[in-house]
Amino acid sequence: PDDWLKTWTRVNDRYLKDLNYRRYPPGQGGESSIDVKLNGAYVLMGLLHGKGDPDLTPVIACRCGQDSDCNPSNAAGILFTTIGRRGLPERFTSALDPKPIFSHTAYNFERLLAVCEKLAREAVVRAGGRIERDADGREVMVIGVVEPKPGKLEQCWAPGPPAGKRFSDAQRKEIVTKDP
Q1: CA-to-CA distance for 62 and 72, rounded, in angstroms?
Q2: pTM score
Q3: How many CA atoms within 13 Å lie on the side-chain side of 26?
Q4: Which of 4, 109, 135, 148 has the most CB within a 10 Å radius?
Q5: What is the pLDDT of residues 25-65, one digit of tens each?
Q6: Which residues pair with 142 in a beta bridge?
Q7: Helix (H/G/I), strand (E/B), else coil: 140
């Protein structure tokens, strides 16, 4: 558990070198191995071997290779979310200006956080959980354990039919776009 290079070797042996896990074996239509199994493992390696360190976590995910811009960003994003803005070292937050509107959206940083919190609360309740206060008066989300039900495997190169509407008509009316 303390040797990320050993983990990296095992992951690569399984998901990069084993041609059964690749759509295009070398020389047969593509050299790319940007794949969720491999890159997801690299994100997880950054989180596990980074041990909660906001500097080390993205470095390990980056040093794994492959999609080495997204993987460290995803690992850092997950870690930083669990730490929370107030718990991060100031060097990660001092330059954030929460006021400007993000391009092509109606959101600034504060509004985006409010929407994310609202959606998280709705998801907890919709999944049968609840929101309550602990002994210190802090709000906690209680999420029940549910046996996962994996869907049918779909490969990106052979997707199934569309699942239907993603948004209700009322939700669609709330979607606003801006011309660049």
Answers
A1: 5
A2: 0.67
A3: 3
A4: 4
A5: 556 655 555 678 889 999 999 999 999 999 999 999 999 98
A6: 130
A7: strand
Element (H, E) at 96: none
- Using DSSP's 3-state secondary structure scheme, residue 137 falls into coil
Burial level of 155, CB count in 10 A (0-12/13-18/19+)?
exposed
Structure tokens at 93: 């937050």
Beta carbons within 10 angstroms of residue 47's beta carbon: 20
CA 144/CA 158 separation, integer angstroms: 34
Q: Which sign does the torsion angle of CA 33, 34, 37, 39 carry?
A: positive
Q: How is the chain split among helix, strand and coil, in percent rounded to 5?
A: 45, 5, 50
φ and ψ at 57, to 5 degrees?
A: -55, -55
- Angle at the Cα of 121 (from 93 to 75), degrees rounded to 5? 40
Cite the beta strand spans of the chain per DSSP E: 130-133, 139-142
Burial tier of 109 (Cβ tally within 10 Å: 0-12, 13-18, 19+) = middle
Instruction: Find out whether 60 and 41 touch, Cβ atoms under 8 Å.
Output: no
